[in-house]
Description:
Helices cover 50% and strands 15% of the residues. The protein is an alpha+beta fold.
Amino acid sequence: xxxxxxxxxxxxxxxxxxxxxxxxxxxxxxxxxxxxxxxxxxxxxxxxxxxxxxxxxxxxxxxxxxxxxxxxxxxxxxxxxxxxxxxxxxxxxxxxxxxxxxxxxxxxxxxxxxxxxxxxxxxxxxxxxxxxxxxxxxxxxxxxxxxxxxxxxxxxxxxxxxxxxxxxxxxxxxxxxxxxxxxxxxxxxxxxxxxxxxxxxxxxxxxxxxxxxxxxxxxxxxxxxxxxxxxxxxxxxxxxxxxxxxxxxxxxxxxxxxxxxxxxxxxxxxxxxx
Length: 274
């Protein structure tokens, strides 16, 4: 499945769409199964959801706290996709059990609705996850260097590889660029490739000179084929490949230093994260 849902000019990350579907499924199940006390059941389900999200975020922040300590307010920026899913599930279920036992919420309806919501979320996440296989369409892309010389993504093999699809006119692309530049300098064991989507080389060179002069491996996708094929034209989009060239994950949307570190940990793991 494409990891982004396109509605007009908007590209909505697939994981956000799956979360919304899970919430709607849980609420619908609660309404259908708890007609005797729908208000109390709905309140308990919403609280379980919010507690789960809060726990997922706080556990992630603690795991990558070194990236948040210099700028604590970035903890509140949820656009970076930094969550600990399993911790969130445990938090939601812990509250649901508390509500059923101590607050006398209708247990069968509450736990059933929460189970359905979790099943939709987990199933949707597995549906969105890329198959752990090489992506020949990436190697076949006709890309160029800034000087116009032909290049190929197949040259970046043998090490974990991060391919960032970006454009200088894209505000979140510009915001995440310092995190990528720092990660490239800090992780020589990872290939970082910055694949610009359909901009003129002279415009790219001018942007880089002003904002990211130390960036390496900047290539141009003149037709924007990568974003069309991989992210439904959503930018920024970042592909994470293991050392065998298998696509481990794909993130549509802005990454922070912390959420980038989380995904780097996955592809740098001994099993390749695939």
